[in-house]
Fold this sequence. Notes:
The complex is a heterodimer.
Chain A: H1 2-16, H2 26-94, H3 100-113, E1 117-123, E2 129-133, H4 148-154, E3 159-161, E4 165-167, E5 170-180, E6 186-195, H5 199-202, E7 212-216, E8 222-225, H6 240-246, E9 251-257, E10 264-272, E11 277-284, H7 285-288, H8 290-336, H9 351-384, H10 389-404, E12 408-414, E13 421-422, E14 437-438, H11 443-451, E15 455-457, H12 460-466, E16 477-485, E17 488-497, H13 505-542, E18 547-550, E19 553-560, E20 567-574, E21 580-587, H14 591-609, H15 615-630, E22 636-644, E23 649-655, E24 661-663, E25 670-671, E26 690-693, E27 699-703, H16 705-708, H17 719-729, H18 735-751, E28 762-769
Antiparallel strand pairs in A: 1-2, 1-6, 3-5, 4-5, 5-6, 7-8, 7-11, 9-10, 10-11, 12-13, 12-17, 13-14, 15-16, 16-17, 18-19, 19-28, 20-21, 21-22, 22-23, 23-26, 24-25, 24-27, 27-28
Chain B: E1 3-10, E2 13-22, H1 27-37, E3 44-48, E4 52-55, H2 57-72, E5 76-80, H3 84-93, E6 101-102, H4 105-114
Parallel strand pairs in B: 2-3, 2-4, 3-5, 5-6
Antiparallel strand pairs in B: 1-2
Helix pairs in contact in B: 1-2
Amino acid sequence: MRALVDDLGGQAALRDVPRVRLRLGIRSKIAAVILICMVPVLVLAGVFYYNRNQERRAFVLRTQEDAARALATNVETFMTNAVHAERAAGAAVTSQPYPVTGIEQLFAAIRANDPTFLALALALPDGRIEAADPPPTDRRRASLTGHRAFDAVRRGAGWALGPPMRIGDRSVVELATGIADEHGRLVAVVDGQVDLERLRASLPAGFTRQTGAIIVDRSGEVVLDLWRPAQQGATVAGLPAVRAALAGRVGTVEGFRDPASGTREVGAAVPIPTLGWAALVLEPEASALQPVRAAATQEALWVLAYAGLGLVLAWVLGGELSAPIRQLAQGARAVGRGELGHRVPVRRTDELGELATAFNEMSARLQRYVSEMNALQSVSDAALSTVNMRELLPPLVHQIIAALRADGGTIWFVDETTGELAVPAEFDGGPPAEARRLRPGQGLAGRVAASGRALVASDPRALRALAPDLAPQGVCAAAGVPLRAGGKVIGVMQVFSRAPRAFEPREIRLLETFADRVALAVDNARAYERQQEIAGIIQASLVPTPTVRMRGLAVAGRYQPSREVGGDFYAILPLEGDRVGIAIADVSGKGIAAASLSARCRYLLEALAADGRAPDAVLARLNRTLTRDAAGELFVSLIYGVVDREAGTFRFSNAGHPAPLLLRGAGPAATLDAHGLLLGVDAGARYVSAEARIVPGDILVMFTDGITEARNAGGEQFGERRLAEVLEAARDAEPEEVAGRVMDAVAGWSARGRAEGPVDDQAFVAARVLP
Amino acid sequence: MELDVAVRTDRDVSVVSVAGEVDLYTAPRLEEALSRAASGTPPLVVVNLAQTTYLDSTALRVLTTALRQVRERDGEIAVISTQPKITKLFSITGLDQLFPLCATEDEALARVRGRAPHQP
C-alpha cells in the first residue's frame, strides 16, 4: 500500500515537472541539420589540420636536427684540426733534438698563427713539462700528471680531452695528443689549451642568433653555449634528447621550458662520436614554429569561414522556407476562425508557392461551399416555416443567385390549368413585364417545365436556340431546373449569367437541391394557404351580420380571426315569441378541425335551441353529442342564453366560458355567474340555468378569452378590468359602437409589439335591452 | 413562455410540478410528463399548479385527457392550485367539478390515496 502511495506520489511529481520541449522552427532545424552535416567535415578538417601541423613540426625538428649535425661536424672538424696541429708540432720537435727555447719559440709561432691555442706545452711521458708557451711559472714542478687528458693519452689514447674549464669568460678545454716514435712508443705529449670560443668563427652562416647551439660533454656538462653566454654552465643534461645523443642516438626536444628565460623551446641533439659529446640546437618555439602556426591559423580561419558561411546560408534558406509556411499557418488559423476570405500572398514559383496557391483555392472553394450551405440552410428553413412564401421567395432567390455567383435568377410557376409559366409579380428584379409569361415548351423555362429536366445554355448561340426570350435581356448563359412537388413540375428555377459560362454539373446539382427545397417550401405554403382558405370559408359562414335589431333588443357582434383560423363564434337566434337566443363559443384548437367543429357546434346549437328548450337542456344535449364526436380531443366553452323581453329575464347556461357581464345604469359591470363544465369533456356533465332580470337600458356583454387574454409586447394580458373600464365608459353607446370600442381597445393593446394580428380568435357580443 | 415540468414520486403517488406557462407549444411536455406519472397501478397523480402562470385550452385538454385515462384505470388525479387565477380558470371552465382542487400537497396526497369519489 505504502509503495502504491509512493508510486502515485512519484507519478504526480512526474506530472508536475514542467515538460521542457525543444521547439525549433524550420529555420533552426535546417541550420541544425547543416551543422550536423558539417560535423564530420569539421572533424576531418581537424584531423587533417592536426596531421599537417605535426608534419610541419616534424619538418621544423628535422631542420633543428640538421643544424645540430652541422654543429657536431664543425666541432669534430675543429677538434680534429686542433689534434693535427698538436701532432704536427709534437712530431716536429721530437723528430730531432730541439732546444727547449726552440720548442717554446715554435709553440709561440704556432699560437701566433692559430689563436685556437691559448697555451701549448710539451710534456714527457712521465708528465714533466719540457717546454711550454707561455712558459710555466715554476718549471721544476710543472707536471701534467693527474690531468685527465694527459692521463688518458699516457694510457694509450691517441688524443684526449680534459674537462671543460672556464678561463676568464672563455670556455677552454685541454687537448692532449700523444707523440710516438717509429716504434709506436710514446715519446711526448703535446698538451694545448683549446679556446672553444674559436668554434664560433667556424660555424656555417645558417645559424641565427636565435638558434641556441650548445655543446655538451659526456657527463652532460655544457661545454659551450655558443650564443647565450649567460646560460653557459646551465645544465641541459636532464633533457631526454641530450641523454639520447650522449648514448649515440639522435634526440629531439619539444616543449622544453628554458629555466632562465622561461621560453618554450624546440630543438634536436645529435652525438659527436669522436668526442663522446653531444651537439644540441635549441630555438624558441615562438620563432621556430611561427611559420607553422601562421599557416595553421590561416587554415583554421578558412574552415571557420566556410562553416560560418554554411550557417548563414542555412539561416537564410530556413527563413525563405519558414516565412511562407508561417503565413500559411496564420491563414489556416484565420480560416479556422471562420475568416473564409483570408488569402495568403503567393510570391514564389516553387512548391511553397504551389501550396499557397492551393491554400487560396481551397479557402475560396470553402468560402463558396459555406455560402452555398448557408443559402441551402435558409431555403430549407423557409421550406419548414409556415410564413407567407410570396414574401420570402425574392430574398431566397437572391441567396441562390449569390451562392451560384450568377448575375440573376427567376422562379417561374406553372399555371395548373393552362400549363403556362409566369413569374410572380413580387419579383421586381425579374424579367421585364412582357417577358413574364411563357407558353408551355417556350423558352428555357418552358422547355424545362415540359421535359422535367435541367437545361443549360453555356454561350449566346446555345442561349438563342434554347431561350430566345432571354437573349434580348443581355443574358449570355443560363441554367434552369424544375421545381417538383407531388410528382408534378410546379415551376422552374432559373439562373443566368451576363458572361458566357459553363455551369458545372456540380452547380447544376446544387441548383437542383435548392429547387427541391424551394418546391417543398412552395408546396407547404400552398397547402397552408389552402387550409387557411377552407377554414376561413367555414368560419365566415358562421359569423352572422354584425348588427341585428329586433323588437326590444339591439345586438352587435364582432369577430376577429387570428393568424390561424380558430373556432370562436357567436350566434343570434330569433325564437318563438319575442324571445331571442344569444350564444358565444370558443372551440379549442385551430385550423380546419376547429373551424369544422365550430360549424357543427353552431348548427347543432341552432337546431337544439329552435324548440325553445331551456339553456341547460340545450347544453346537456350539445355536450353529449360533442363528447361522443370529439372523443376528448377538442372541447368547447359556450354560453347560451335567452332574452325574454316580455318576462324581463335573461336565462342562460354556461359551459366553461368566461361569465357574461351586465351593465345597468351607472353601476359597475356585473358578472352573471352560472358555472358548468366545458362541452366535450364528460358526456354526463350537468348544467344549470341561471336567470338575471333585465330592464330597458341594460347592456348584456359576452366575449371570448381572445379579448381578455390579448397580450401586449410585455406579455401582459388585456384582462377583465380593462374590459370593464372600456364598457363602463361606453355604457351609453349603441351596441355596435360598444363592440367597436372594445375591439379597438384590444387591438390597440396588442398592437404595441405584435404586427401580425391576434394570436387567438376574438369574439364579442353586446346586446342592449330597448324600451 | 418557459415551462419546467418535474415528476417525482411520493411512495405510490407521482407528483407532477408544473412551473411556467403551458400553451400550444409547451403542452406536449406536460402531456409526456403526465403519461409518465400515470404509469402506476392504479395511477395516483398529483398535479402541482402552484407555480403555473398560464394554462390555455390545449393545457386543459391535456389535463382532461390525463384525467380520463387515469379514471379509466381506477386511479385518481388531484390538482394543487394556490393561485386565484388558476383556481378561477378551473371554476370558469367547470373543471373544478372534475378535478379535486387542493391547497396543499399533503391534502392532495391524502385525496388521491383516499380515492374518495369527488363530489362536485
